[in-house]
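testing teh design pipeline on a random one, pls ignore if ur not involved
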């Protein structure tokens, strides 16, 4: 099996330091180029095969698809056919989880993630990632797969911070990490297809009935 290059642990430690200091971190070119290309190919193949589905808002039986609020198409990685690129990405996220737990004592127990493709003109209005009825999502991770992304293409992740807004261009290899309960964010409309992996580190529930 082909082995993708790893990520120096110092990059993960920098993420931990910035999360502790300000609650967010953006790391350009964190993911190896070969891995980004393979993940992008997987995402676009799913899109071309109509294997991505319209994303919903809400939780449980109240979930509904509202394109004017959220316009991406998604598929969870654990529901995708096995492939080396997906496995390599999950291994990197597990390494990051261990660094965050060791540095910040967060008690992160698992990671969930999905491909997200935004067609031209689609976006996602301002929101928090943590559900109101469940505190388990602790740290959000967004990895971008868009090669040759240019200024003016749109699709920025806009973080709403105490000091103002901060926009993150969805360039290939960039990874944004932020606390799920504290940082509101949105996805600005893009002028062309925008691909990413959106995921969340979850902590173990104190109450086993709380999911």
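output:
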């Amino acid at each position: 099996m082909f082995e993708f290059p790893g990520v120096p642990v110092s990059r993960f430690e920098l993420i931990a330091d910035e999360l502790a200091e300000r609650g967010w971190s953006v790391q350009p070119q964190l993911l190896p180029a070969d891995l980004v290309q393979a993940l992008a190919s997987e995402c676009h193949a799913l899109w071309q095969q109509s294997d991505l589905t319209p994303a919903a808002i809400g939780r449980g039986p109240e979930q509904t698809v509202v394109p004017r609020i959220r316009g991406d198409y998604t598929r969870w990685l654990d529901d995708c056919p096995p492939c080396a690129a997906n496995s390599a990405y999950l291994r990197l996220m597990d390494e990051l989880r261990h660094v965050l737990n060791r540095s910040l004592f967060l008690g992160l127990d698992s990671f969930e993630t999905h491909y997200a493709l935004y067609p031209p003109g689609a976006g996602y209005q301002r929101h928090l990632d943590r559900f109101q009825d469940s505190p388990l999502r602790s740290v959000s991770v967004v990895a971008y797969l868009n090669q040759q992304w240019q200024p003016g293409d749109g699709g920025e992740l806009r973080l709403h911070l105490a000091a103002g807004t901060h926009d993150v261009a969805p360039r290939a290899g960039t990874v944004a990490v932020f606390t799920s309960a504290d940082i509101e964010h949105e996805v600005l409309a893009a002028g062309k297809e925008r691909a990413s992996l959106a995921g969340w580190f979850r902590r173990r529930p104190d109450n086993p009935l709380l999911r």
